[in-house]
């Protein structure tokens, strides 16, 4: 399986529409990959709270349309990072409902295949935590072709191992985590990505943003980790395309050779 993580620089001097077009072109260049992954909230910036409402869009909005077309052109599975999703209130066609931090997964035919709304909102009673509603669903998707099941999580979710246990119980073999992680906590980013891989006995593909936006320097250092916690590839701090090839079958082999998941107790479900 070949995966490409696009570590996007969310530059404050670049308009959202221009960045959308630029990123769509980068996705098109990944023809030959099985899976392409983008970071969290790359259209607007994960810390640009003041711009969330302005650039919120529905699931069929301009970012979804551009990413679906790019996935179809490249014939790839595309995890398009996340957008600020504006929803309609129940029973209404108006788009003035809650905002969500929403990940979009597109199939190689360009169709929207899965939607994941971020469960754990960051901000400690500020920013995202107060401006966005929380998702409540564990989301996985089977990727035909590569023949593996991915589990979806976003940024701050990485700190909550129980979510990843539920993803594993739902069949996840590869955990995809777009993020807008700050540089000042980069050590946690690297540590937690490896921890989630080891405890889940799964691949982790963690894709972050680069540069500085809303005054917050981003960690970059997108990373691919194997089921034993070994780093297969890691980006630097700037904008970069990180491409790696790996064998999804190694997940089942690892779990069979070292069946730690089978030995769980404390009332947790066993595979």
UniProtKB/TrEMBL annotation:
Pfam families documented for this protein: CN_hydrolase
Any one GO molecular-function label of the UniProt entry: hydrolase activity
Annotated keywords: Hydrolase
Domain of life where this protein originates: Bacteria
Domain spans labelled CN hydrolase: 1-248
Family: Belongs to the carbon-nitrogen hydrolase superfamily. NIT1/NIT2 family.
Descriptive protein name: Carbon-nitrogen family hydrolase
Keyword RNA-binding listed: no
InterPro entries xref list: C-N_Hydrolase, C-N_Hydrolase_sf, UPF0012_CS
């Amino acid at each position: 399986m070949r995966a490409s993580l696009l570590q996007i620089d969310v530059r404050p001097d670049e308009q959202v529409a221009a960045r959308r077009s630029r990123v769509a072109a980068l996705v098109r260049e990944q023809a030959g990959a099985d899976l392409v992954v983008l970071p969290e909230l790359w259209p607007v910036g994960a810390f640009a709270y003041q711009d969330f409402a302005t650039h919120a869009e529905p699931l069929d909005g301009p970012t979804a349309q551009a990413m679906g077309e790019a996935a179809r052109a490249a014939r790839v599975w595309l995890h398009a990072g996340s957008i600020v999703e504006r929803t309609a209130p129940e029973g209404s066609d108006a788009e003035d409902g809650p905002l969500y931090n929403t990940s979009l997964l597109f199939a190689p035919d360009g169709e929207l295949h899965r939607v994941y709304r971020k469960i754990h909102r960051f901000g400690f009673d500020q920013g995202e935590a107060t401006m966005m509603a929380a998702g409540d669903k564990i989301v996985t998707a089977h990727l035909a072709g590569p023949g593996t099941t991915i589990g979806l999580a976003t940024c701050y979710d990485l700190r909550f191992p129980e979510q990843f246990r539920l993803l594993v119980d739902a069949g996840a073999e590869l955990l995809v985590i777009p993020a807008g992680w700050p540089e000042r906590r980069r050590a946690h980013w690297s540590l937690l990505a490896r921890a989630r891989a080891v405890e889940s006995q799964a691949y982790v593909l963690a894709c972050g943003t680069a540069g500085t936006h809303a005054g917050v320097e981003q960690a970059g250092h997108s990373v691919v980790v194997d089921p034993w916690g070994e780093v297969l590839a890691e980006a630097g701090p700037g904008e970069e395309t990180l491409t790696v090839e790996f064998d999804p079958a190694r997940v089942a082999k690892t779990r069979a050779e070292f069946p730690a998941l089978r030995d769980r107790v404390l009332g947790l479900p066993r595979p």
